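Lab notes, practical 5.
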Amino acid sequence: MCIEDVLKLTPLLLGIVVISGCSQRGQLVGATSVAQLDVPDQIAVGFNHQHHNRYRSPITGEWRDGDDIEQILVRAIDLAEREILLAVQELSAPTIANALIAAKQRRVNVQVVLENTYSTPWTEQTQSQLKPHQRQRWNQLKQLADQNGDGTTTPEEARLGDAIGLLRDQGIPIVDDTEDGSRGSGLMHHKFVVIDRIVVLTGSANFTRSGMHGDANRAKTRGNVNHILRFQGSELAELFRQEFSTMWGDGPGGKLNSRFGLQKESTGISTAMVGETRVEVLFAPHRKRDPNHGLNWIEQQLGEARKSIDMALFVFTAQQLANALQGAVNAGLQIRLIADPSFASRSFSEVLDLLGVALPDRNCKLEQDNQPFHKGLNSVGIPLLAHGDKLHHKFAVIDNKKVITGSFNWSPSAAHTNDETLLVIHSPQLAKHFTREMDRLWDTAELGITPHIQRKLDRQRIRCGDGVERD
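Output from the prediction step:
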């Protein structure tokens, strides 16, 4: 087996494969001495903050713990022979853009779908006209483009650091969620790539260096906490190709036959076998009256749990899922939740429900159907992260044998507005990887009502007293 075959079969290229001859075994450079967990046949997973692998950060040049999600994507793209279909909310990593350009130059069909907020080259944007979040992003990209680190981003450095500008200049076709003639869906929130009708890469990560590795001006950041999955199976790839085709229509311009958001024809749960593993997939959104919507499906998975439910969530604002977890607690199941700090303490966060508290909004109002747990859980935590990093996972592990994941946050917007991917993977082997990631987050988490949450509760109690209203 020579290098091309090894690259196609190695679990996820979590390190650099070094082979001195076709009869030699590949070795992972930068891997720690900790034994790697087995993965299911034709499936692999990587976590950019894990402790069991190492890579050199493209931002700082230093070795750091984790799997290099950017290089995992680049290596998969480098192996493409016929077709690359990429749909992601945001793509700003020039290395990924250059890999796509190289693929086009070797006559691979490359097509890209983006969220309209991120489909304009950043070098064409005027900083003063941007909203605060977009202005922060613009400054980050400008600093990342400063390749020689002299504090000045030259026009040439800016050109080479503008991923969307590079794609456009090389004639790679791009559509966004305004291609249907609308002002855009809620969010084109997918994060997937389909290669040669057989390989699918998907997960929680946007294709940005800030999200994968850290911020240019914050040395302690390590990027948002994310994961990526790689599947090798034609059945699953075809399901993703169909979703991509619906959004793509006839491509840029033309008949305005692209479909996004609720303009898409709603579909139900589809099943594909990847090796011996059953993978179920649902593409959002669905109307609230449609019983096939994603929140109903997650509620069903939670209801089938018999022993334990682990969750690592960026956004958790779906009351029906909090109610389902109350039922699981009442049934004696072991529940663990790690939540992103920036969302956990918002007034509409269901994390507060699990903690048994209610936080009025700035108008001293509570959500209409707010139902805090009668007894707050002490198994709800906030991870220890560098300032600027977010816990961006959207996964759950049911009974140590089933994984729920995808781009799908646990929110009504994900179910009823956005273009999203929601996966349920039936694999105890894969579940071990996600449980290990959960354990890693849990080891340093701050559990229960944190001082930050308590301060917010105290401030609102002083401000609102007992006179809170329900929306």
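Observations recorded by the TA: The two ends are 64 Å apart (CA to CA). Residues 1-34 have pLDDT under 50 and may be disordered.
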